[in-house]
Write a structure and sequence with these properties.
It comes from Histidinibacterium lentulum. The chain contains nine helices and nine strands. With 299 residues, the protein is α/β, with parallel strands linked by helices.
Length: 299
C-alpha cells in the first residue's frame, strides 16, 4: 500500500515505519524532522496547516513516481496513519498541546474525506481513560479496562485525544470510510527493557499510571499493519498493549496491592494485562510477539 504516515520520526514512528517497509508498503513520513532510514520517503509538513496537509497528500512520494508519462495523475494514497502529536503533557503549554493535537487530526481527517481516502488509522491514547495524567491516584472503574470503559480526561493531552475520537466519528459517519482509533499504551522501545525495567521490578507502583501495561514499539507496527489489512469495520477504537503486565507480579498480586476493591468483570490469566486487548485480537488478529520477559531472559 502507498501510505501517508505522520510522525514517523517520533518514538513510536521510527519503529513502525521500518516494520511497514519490511512488509512491502511504501511509506511517506510526514514530520517536522526527517527519518534517516533506508526506503522511507520524507516530507517536511506542518500538520496544523491545512494547506500543507492537502498539498502533501497530492504530492509525489519520490522522484521515481515522476517517471510515469506526462499527464499521469499523481498516485493516490491508499491509507493515512496519523501518529504525529505533542506526545504528553509538560512538554509545551497545555494550550499548545491541545491546539496541535486537535487541529492536526482535524486537518488529516478532513483531507482524507475530501480526497476519498478510505482508510485512516490514528493514534488515540491510554490517557483517555483518565488514569494516567491526573493529580493523585485514580483507579479504573473495573478490570480489565476494555474499550467500553468510560473516557474521563482531566488534562489537555487526554482531552485532545477524546476530542479527536469524537471528530473521527463525525467524519466516519459522513464518509463511511474505515477510521480506526488506537488507544495506545505506554510505548517501549527495545533498548528501554534493559534501561528501565529493573526499576519496575523493584517498584511496581511506577507502572500504576499505565495500568501496569505497555506496548512494544515493534508490536505497535504489527497492530497498524493488521489495521491496514482489515477492511469494513467502519469506526472502531482499539486498546493497544502487549499481552502481559510490565511488572513481575501476577495478576492477583497486583490486584491485591493496588486494585483490591476494583470489580473484576471476568477471569484473567496469571500474567494477563489489565489493559484489555481482546477486541484487537478478535477483529484484527493482533497477536503481540515481543515480551519484556524474553527481552530480559526471564522466560
Amino acid at each position: 500500500m502507498r501510505i501517508f504516515l505522520t510522525g514517523g520520526s517520533g518514538k513510536a514512528g521510527r519503529h513502525v515505519v521500518p516494520y511497514l517497509l519490511d512488509r512491502g508498503h511504501r511509506v511517506t513520513n510526514a514530520d517536522l524532522v526527517p527519518l534517516d532510514h533506508p526506503g522511507v520517503d520524507n516530507l517536511i509538513v506542518d500538520l496544523t496547516d491545512a494547506g500543507q496537509v492537502f498539498s502533501a497528500l497530492h504530492a509525489w512520494a519520490g522522484f521515481d513516481e515522476m517517471e510515469a508519462p506526462e499527464g499521469t495523475p499523481v498516485p493516490r494514497y491508499d491509507a493515512i496513519v496519523h501518529l504525529a502529536a505533542i506526545p504528553r503533557i509538560l512538554l509545551v503549554p497545555d494550550t499548545e498541546t491541545y491546539r496541535v493535537n486537535t487541529l492536526s487530526t482535524f486537518n488529516i481527517l478532513e483531507a482524507a474525506a475530501k480526497m476519498g481516502i478510505g482508510k485512516v488509522i490514528y493514534a488515540s491514547s491510554e490517557t483517555t481513560y483518565g488514569v494516567c495524567f491526573v493529580q493523585g491516584e485514580v483507579r479504573p472503574e473495573y478490570l480489565p479496562v476494555d474499550e467500553e470503559h468510560p473516557t474521563r480526561p482531566r488534562d489537555a493531552y487526554a482531552a485532545s485525544k477524546v476530542a479527536n475520537e469524537v471528530t473521527a466519528q463525525a467524519f466516519q459517519r459522513r464518509t463511511g470510510a474505515d477510521i480506526y482509533g488506537l488507544r495506545i499504551n505506554n510505548v517501549i522501545e527495545p533498548h528501554e527493557y534493559e534501561q528501565n525495567f529493573a526499576a519496575y521490578m523493584e517498584d511496581p507502583s511506577l507502572r500504576r499510571r499505565n495500568i501496569f501495561a505497555y506496548i512494544d514499539a515493534r508490536d505497535l507496527g504489527q497492530m497498524i499493519d493488521r489495521c491496514l489489512k482489515t477492511d469494513g469495520l467502519g469506526y472502531q477504537v482499539f486498546n493497544v498493549a502487549n499481552a502481559e503486565h510490565s511488572v513481575g507480579e501476577t495478576t492477583e498480586e497486583i490486584r491485591a496491592r493496588f486494585y483490591a476493591d476494583v470489580p473484576l468483570r471476568r477471569e484473567m490469566g496469571e500474567r494477563e494485562t489489565f489493559y484489555d486487548i481482546s477486541k484487537a485480537k478478535r477483529l484484527l488478529g493482533f497477536e503481540p510477539v515481543h515480551s519484556w520477559r524474553a527481552e530480559l531472559g526471564r522466560g
